[in-house]
């Protein structure tokens, strides 16, 4: 069993290998067979059906997008162009309290579940049905899934502007347990949104209780990212301690001008808590956020760009203050007339974004919104922007550290076993890119643009994207939470 086979399906030769652990690059050849990495080293005596000359370009584990809203996109647009063109090989769906399953809608999806699609996109009353649909769609990327607290609330409750009763919590727990037994990665919440804001911490704590036995985790779009952010972080820690589960704070940011400059304080809180319990966070590399239009954020102190509006689609791309001026009304009134709508909020300081992005506990996640007609450019640009703009051009962090934040850190934290590193025996999710050319091309004005410098992407050993074009192969599938490897999972935090 220890004689080394010398034939591969694919051989990538002469690469600068970034193995995902944060180690500096080394020149290596990598062999792939049957979807796995079977050899790493000098493989000049190997044969392969396909040989790819890396010519000193960077080879890294395929990127893991830990924060997506691709729940229905992986089924409806399985080619997954916005992600595969960035070198992303695995997406985690179900963030911010909203998931496509398990969901049985009684009417239109409540805000912000409408980010995932309209009523007819929600066809998965059980998590098992969702898993089946993902695999039947044969997406180009692997798909891991969280279960949204708001989605569970919408199943069990007649109205969302109140706390759930004990009976409703039992109903939510039963649905969460079904999902966990079918490989869901954990529970997400979106406590800032009106559809979950009335849920007391105790409701989330009770719902989080089954996670530990399943080796799952809790992620949260916190109750606020504005002035009371430290309290919101404490709430997240409290849920983690109560349920004995790791916590991921989603898209950590200091939102709103009165909150700018507080990232140091925020990270100090995170570090303090990390001494007591496993906690991490993700962030996207931009100083503007995006979601549905929230009238509470229409205060006049920041610019807000409208990206879509059901009654006024012609206003997409305009600032709300311009629309208000055009209509001769206040910004609040304009916001009301535009609803339901989507928005980009110019609500972060660049210094804070940089400090949070470069913190060792921070993973990269796009938070991209694939159903938005004028999506925030993070949908197509997040990963190459970290590699090109922040690591190479701004020298904010070494390239190997940028890669770690997109690969091994993410895989360990979310329990995606045998992914996130270039290692013998691991799944052959790989990206070949040019460190000199890699660059995000998506902009706020023109956001649906493939990145430059991502030269080849393999998913489960299958070449899926090469030289700016998809190959037509789609080799992704649903990935279940890995068997608990406790040492590993905690080491990652
Ligand atoms: Zn969110
Ligand atoms: Cu999100």
Automatic annotation (TrEMBL):
Signal peptide: none annotated. Residues 50-465 form the Amidohydrolase domain. One of its GO terms (molecular function) is hydrolase activity, acting on carbon-nitrogen (but not peptide) bonds, in linear amides. Gene3D superfamilies: D-aminoacylase. Domain 3 (3.30.1490.130), Metal-dependent hydrolases (3.20.20.140), Urease, subunit C, domain 1 (2.30.40.10). This is Amidohydrolase family protein. Pfam families: Amidohydro_3 (PF07969). It comes from the Bacteria. It comes from Paraburkholderia elongata.
């Amino acid at each position: 069993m220890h004689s080394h086979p010398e034939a591969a399906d694919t051989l990538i030769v002469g690469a600068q290998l970034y193995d995902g652990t944060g180690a500096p690059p080394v020149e290596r050849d990598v062999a792939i067979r049957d979807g796995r990495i079977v050899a790493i080293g000098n493989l000049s005596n190997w044969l392969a059906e396909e040989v790819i000359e890396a010519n000193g370009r960077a080879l890294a584990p395929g990127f893991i997008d830990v924060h997506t809203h691709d729940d229905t996109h992986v089924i409806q647009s399985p080619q997954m162009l916005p992600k595969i063109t960035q070198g992303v090989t695995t997406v985690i769906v179900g963030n911010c309290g909203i998931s496509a399953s398990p969901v049985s809608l009684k009417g239109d999806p409540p805000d912000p579940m409408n980010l995932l699609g309209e009523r007819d996109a929600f066809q998965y009353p059980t998590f098992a049905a969702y898993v089946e649909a993902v695999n039947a769609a044969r997406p180009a990327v692997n798909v891991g899934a969280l279960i949204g607290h708001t989605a569970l609330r919408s199943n069990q409750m007649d109205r969302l502007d109140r706390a759930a009763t004990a009976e409703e919590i039992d109903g939510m727990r039963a649905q969460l347990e079904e999902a966990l037994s079918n490989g869901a990665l954990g529970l997400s919440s979106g406590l800032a949104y009106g559809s979950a804001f009335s849920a007391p911490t105790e409701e989330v704590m009770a719902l989080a209780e089954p996670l530990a036995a399943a080796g799952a985790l809790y992620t949260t779009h916190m109750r606020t990212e504005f002035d009371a952010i430290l309290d919101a972080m404490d709430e997240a820690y409290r849920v983690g301690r109560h349920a004995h589960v790791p916590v991921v704070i989603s898209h950590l940011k200091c939102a709103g001008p009165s909150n700018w400059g507080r990232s140091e304080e925020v990270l100090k809180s995170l570090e303090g808590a990390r001494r007591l319990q496993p906690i991490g966070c993700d962030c996207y590399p931009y100083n503007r956020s995006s979601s549905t239009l929230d009238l509470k954020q229409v205060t006049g102190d920041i610019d807000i760009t409208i990206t879509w509006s059901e009654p006024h689609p012609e206003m997409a791309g305009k600032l709300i203050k311009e629309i208000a001026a055009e209509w001769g009304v206040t910004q609040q009134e304009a916001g009301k007339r535009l609803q339901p709508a989507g928005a980009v909020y110019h609500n972060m300081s660049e210094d804070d974004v940089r400090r949070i992005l470069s913190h060792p506990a921070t993973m990269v996640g796009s938070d991209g919104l694939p159903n938005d007609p004028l999506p925030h450019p993070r949908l197509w640009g997040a990963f190459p922007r970290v590699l090109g703009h922040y690591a190479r051009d701004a020298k904010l962090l070494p390239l190997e550290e940028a890669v770690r934040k997109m690969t091994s850190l993410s895989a360990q934290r979310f329990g995606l076993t045998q992914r996130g590193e270039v290692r013998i025996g691991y799944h052959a999710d790989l990206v070949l890119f040019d460190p000199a050319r890699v660059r995000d091309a998506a902009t706020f004005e023109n956001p649906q643009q493939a990145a430059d410098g991502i030269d080849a992407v393999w998913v489960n050993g299958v070449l899926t994207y090469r030289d700016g074009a998809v190959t037509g192969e789609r080799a992704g599938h649903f990935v279940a939470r890995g068997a608990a490897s406790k040492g590993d999972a905690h080491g990652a935090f």
